[in-house]
Amino acid sequence: MIRASEDNEYYELTSPTILPKASGFLWNEKMMIHMNCRGYAVAQFMQPEPGKYSYAPNLEAKTFMQPEQPYYAHHPGRFVYVKDEVSGEIFSAPYEPVRVLPDKYTFSVGKHNIVWKIEHHELLIEMSLSLPKEDPMELWRVKVTNLSPKNRKLSIYPYFTVGYMSWMNQSGEYKEDLQGIVCSAITPYQKYQDYEKIKNLKDKTFLLADQEPSAWEVNQEAFEGEGGIPSPSAIRGEMLQKGESRYESPVAVLQYRSEMEPGEEREYRFIFGPAHDEAEIDQIRRQYFIDKNAGGQDGFALAELEYAEYVSEGRGCIEIQTPDADLDNFVNHWLPRQMYYHGQTNRLTTDPQTRNYLQDNMGMSYIKPEMARAAFLTALSQQEVSGAMPDGIILHKDAELKYINQVPHTDHCVWLPICLSTYLDETNDFTILEERVPFADSEELESVFEHITRAMHWLMKDRDERGLNFINQGDWCDPMNMVGYKGKGVSGWLTIATAYAFIIWADICEKGDRVNIAEEFRLAADETNAVVNQYLWDGEWYARGITDDNVVFGISKDQEGRIFINPQGWALLSGAADEEKQEKLIQAVKEQLETPYGVEKLAPSFTSMREDVGRVTQKHPGTAENGAVYNHAAAFYIYGLYAVGEKENAYRLLRKMLPGPDAEDILRRGQLPVFIPNYYRGAYRQFPHTAGRSSHLFNTGTVPWVYRCLIDGLFGLQGTKEGLQVKPQLPSNWQEVTVKRIFRGAVLHIDMKRNSGVATTEVYVNGKYIEDGIIKDLKSAAEYKVLVKIPS
Amino acid sequence: MIRASEDNEYYELTSPTILPKASGFLWNEKMMIHMNCRGYAVAQFMQPEPGKYSYAPNLEAKTFMQPEQPYYAHHPGRFVYVKDEVSGEIFSAPYEPVRVLPDKYTFSVGKHNIVWKIEHHELLIEMSLSLPKEDPMELWRVKVTNLSPKNRKLSIYPYFTVGYMSWMNQSGEYKEDLQGIVCSAITPYQKYQDYEKIKNLKDKTFLLADQEPSAWEVNQEAFEGEGGIPSPSAIRGEMLQKGESRYESPVAVLQYRSEMEPGEEREYRFIFGPAHDEAEIDQIRRQYFIDKNAGGQDGFALAELEYAEYVSEGRGCIEIQTPDADLDNFVNHWLPRQMYYHGQTNRLTTDPQTRNYLQDNMGMSYIKPEMARAAFLTALSQQEVSGAMPDGIILHKDAELKYINQVPHTDHCVWLPICLSTYLDETNDFTILEERVPFADSEELESVFEHITRAMHWLMKDRDERGLNFINQGDWCDPMNMVGYKGKGVSGWLTIATAYAFIIWADICEKGDRVNIAEEFRLAADETNAVVNQYLWDGEWYARGITDDNVVFGISKDQEGRIFINPQGWALLSGAADEEKQEKLIQAVKEQLETPYGVEKLAPSFTSMREDVGRVTQKHPGTAENGAVYNHAAAFYIYGLYAVGEKENAYRLLRKMLPGPDAEDILRRGQLPVFIPNYYRGAYRQFPHTAGRSSHLFNTGTVPWVYRCLIDGLFGLQGTKEGLQVKPQLPSNWQEVTVKRIFRGAVLHIDMKRNSGVATTEVYVNGKYIEDGIIKDLKSAAEYKVLVKIPS
């Protein structure tokens, strides 16, 4: 069974086999961990290096996370073996590695912890994982309860995988004085210049216990023996052998041997994580365990509490009650949490892609706008004098642009006004525009106004003779790295997005009393839209781009990649599409891209390399950019639908994107409804069997845009310079909704109701009719009662 | 039980549990594969990229091979599940993944194939692996024999792991027309410049069968189900489900369901490997399978035969019969095979380290001298005009210097005369010295004489004011990357080795009629030895070097790294050590470095970073360069002992290095005696429990030096300009040995016998006494009978 807990703090699964990949994730300032219901650590990453402290048993490529990831028997994980010392029977919690189906099983994905409850052989095993607020380490509780009416002789064996830490130097041993296992590794380096970077890494792995174990094992091979991981030879014996590891794969296993009376409970607590040296581990032990044992404060429980508070700070600015209870649950509880994760951690990277950094912080405008503000200034201080934005934003002095950030993309400037506008909507803080920041290549300070205007001018110049924007080696959401690397190819989407950015910037300039600039960019937007319609309209929809060799693609005569969602969604926003074109492209999207699982990114998916398009066409059909239901792109399309008042279409697609509690839907997607993944598998018309599956990746720019769809679109509660504009676009079958909206410190209790007596939407604040629907003069900390009458 | 087969073609193991890591390796021109007795593919690598075709199930770092490698349940492997359709019982051959101990078991590591024989439940399963001579693919035979007196209903399931091929694009399906499984993957790339490199990769993986299977499965997850790899759910069912893989980890499993009469045998044959496209796979199928089925030639059997012939070309130039039968077995069968592997494949790299390339080809002087000749010329054509040798030799136009070859080492020049001298000893081909080759930075041709003289001058100049050779970021065998990176630190070993290189070069020049040059370098060698004794002699042994900050290390006052083997062994060769020093250093080595498993590289092993020494001190104590019994270094010491006539010491240490058939010794080392590993674990005095273990890595420069120890030292059958010099140094307890020596085309049948009637060694050829012990005027293809009388 799959269900939300009554208090909405958890999502629960009651069998490890019906949804084998079900997972939850936790994060803090330094790390994230993604655990699945069977005990596998799907992904675990920390910043800075070494990135991991629990490794695959062989040399593993250090990856952050991978879509639709498979598991293997020795995948890193956290487990507890349980042995009945009388019968000799063995099982493991939560399920792996022994894979005995327990009598009862619950996997609860919470907001600030993840909990398993396993009942088997009249024993209850409860495991929970939490994190401290800042340190990269795991806080584990393991509670054992004897449910049987007789005394039990038991051994429990908490089993934390350590794995193959390093081919250069790895070892591990139990340290009496620390009451824990310490595994040591040396991070390899080749060049002496790299030594300074690696010498201070936290490349030790420790497991600390609050209770002295009866025995332990630190040698993976000795632990497993011929029994292997499903039935380790070492636990067939009476006591673990207290072994050590010397250039052998370490493992951290403890044995607690005890006799339990009927009803008796015992709780064990563990800390698992990385450290630089034993002094640091000792310091952790004192902070979390010792004080409590000495009668002082319980550092462990305190850290759990602090973490729960930290996560709860990630509240959004709306609380809704609609006819769709699942929507309410997701929007009130899980969506802001996911948005907060992005804004708070910048996805655990020290060089986030510029577009991600801006959008993730756009989301923070709803939660902690002061952080969004600081982030915008940071990004702009890395802009070039030419107006160009870099491919990634460097967040630490030692960071450098890595991986995809070394490949030049041309879209980064468009995100500046688009993301800033949300910050201004929420805060009305136009002072940010007067802030003066330097450039990457100049110490001279210029205002944010000037910075963004330069970015807009850069976009205006980085165009071909037709007025279409160059794509170089890529733009957002489609690493089409071969369309324009020769310097000629252009991006249809980017040209349309540029028109939209001009409009947004013109709006901001107008409100910011820069009327001349506003005028310039309104004109530029009109010209750009005209060019778009001249060169990119294919008759029923917009093309995706034109290659270096002047081949237009994403058009009706293409066999694969015939239609892309991005040019369509953004053409609704930029105003390029007039009503006739809007109707046509919406129809084309419905026919060619819409599926039971959402709107696909492009269709048909490419099944082989198209050399003039490049990398996206090498991705698996239906995944990532190649024809997946790529939620980030879909969110823009939905936002565009709201922009042109297509509220029924918009809500239908929005609902498909949000993971719901419908069991069949959950099984299809393979994911609990606690986050929006970056994609659901697409290529629905080509490979229906696999379509709809979740990528299981929770890093995605989708979330703030879904929030904007809710705020600006569905509930129509967007901020403006004057106040809060109320303009809901509820689906016609909704009779009533209530929304608690936190806005610039004020709290508005809004009741939206169908009313057959009104012809247009009418807004009343504390009983008073508001003529233009914009609620003005709101006072911080004050509460307001708002009634919205909507025509039936 | 562990034993050599009667015909010495195999080494055999008869239980998978007594030596769980026992392994054998095969190679051809494009790939190598290292299989262990349980079915794991320890290492598999091919050149060029993509390197692998059978992957770990998750994203695996692509490594060539790793020392003392651990395994995990899903490690890549080749297995056969066997199910009795009546009883439902399942086991697997060879042992993994089911891990049922069979009634009888044999693992036979052969020279040109690897064979397993498993008897269980009255069934005999025989598996064998061979390779074709050139193509990177595996040729498998699986034979099933019904040993029981009744009819049997069976399913056998050949199971070839494919694993997690690519996070970007992977799939797999059964192809009726190919009668096999084809798995497809796209190798990811980030930058468009890399696309040209990856577009032609063989990144498909195929399994072809010579007999039509009853069913198959291509989806790893579907195959395993909840049963997991030890008991896959799919084989619990009647028939495999004929599934496919779409962005899921592929696997290649076939099912053959059959009824077998008593005594009936069935053989299945498979080809497993990589290909660029299906056309190529079809071509392979036709070449290996179709012609046979059409009544034509049996391409499969032909390829096996060709491969056996190819391997048998790797014969050495001596065949011995001594009182030590195990020495005979290893030297006559396995040592030349390992040497041939190195010379033939250059360790499957396209940019071998210069010192490895020269030494591996030095070994080829004994097997295929024409290949050695070509290699020396190739290396010299990449020398700089300054005389400096590069860190790696580029063997393909697309190759580039990778990994460690990007770190500047200063020793490469010394290997030129040292390795060339063996070629000249064997061939007397002094014409090579007159060959004219260009430089890396100049098209101008110069003779090999001039090239090597420039290399010697480079060594003479790359020194500090004392006359000690700079170490920069490293020299051979000790990546001490921080001793001299500031440009001041010097290498004790390299200075000594330079003196030795000068002597060798002087000898060659003299024989090559360049008397003046010879004179120059003899003088230089004397001066160098004097400097060595002035600055590096520590009282009982030679220091290893002096750091940038003028700290002498590898000396008696050091707590760790007090003594290094390399300066000692080479001081015996260079003549730096007079008799008194020789005695002292040999005693120091005996006391501090000698262990039951051989001579350690340094002692005590470093247990923590020494920042002025660098990377070697970060390696695990007792491994690789940090205190292992590093056989390559040990071989030089032994060679040095022979050079000063220390024959008893030399043989004792030589014998410790060679893997023998003593069961206890094999268990300790964990390796069958079919190759010399690069190291046995050292740090014997610090961590005796783990000392002696084999690294299991068969890539090592050790082998040609062991051969030189045998030829130049033990049996004293070294070539000279005049002929074959006979000067054996047999251990005193050997009464008689016979050696068949192939030399410059002549075949000498040599009988060496103790004789109480002689005072010094006397040599007789075809009954005629040879005064100076040098057998001259040998005719190619002629046979000679040689008697050597050795004083008792």
Automatic annotation (TrEMBL), chains A, B:
Entry coiled-coil feature ranges: none
Domain of life from the UniProt record: Bacteria
Pfam families the record matches: GH94_b-supersand (PF06165), Glyco_hydro_94 (PF17167)
UniProt GO BP: cellulose catabolic process
Domain Glycosyl hydrolase 94 supersandwich: start-end pairs: 74-288
Sorted UniProt keywords: Glycosyltransferase, Transferase
MF term (GO), any: hexosyltransferase activity
Glycosyl hydrolase 94 catalytic domain residues: 318-716
Protein name (record): NdvB protein
Organism: Paenibacillus wynnii
